Amino acid sequence: MRADKVRELDSTELRKQVKEIPEQMFRLRFQMSMGQADGLTKLRGMKKDRARMLTVLTERALHPDTAPEPVSKKRGK
Question: The whole model's pTM is what?
């Protein structure tokens, strides 16, 4: 997930995904130990995504005025 996509998510969604990633990484490591070779690139990507999410959460916590929550855009009917 790219950094601009991570910044578009609100903090509750980011926290939810940060909690889910370790479980996904565990499952991926287990699959890799069973012989599936394509997991290494996914694992590296997940680590980077988690780091991006944690960085955005930290930015929002330390500087709430300069890194605000994204405003959800409602579409008119």
Answer: 0.76
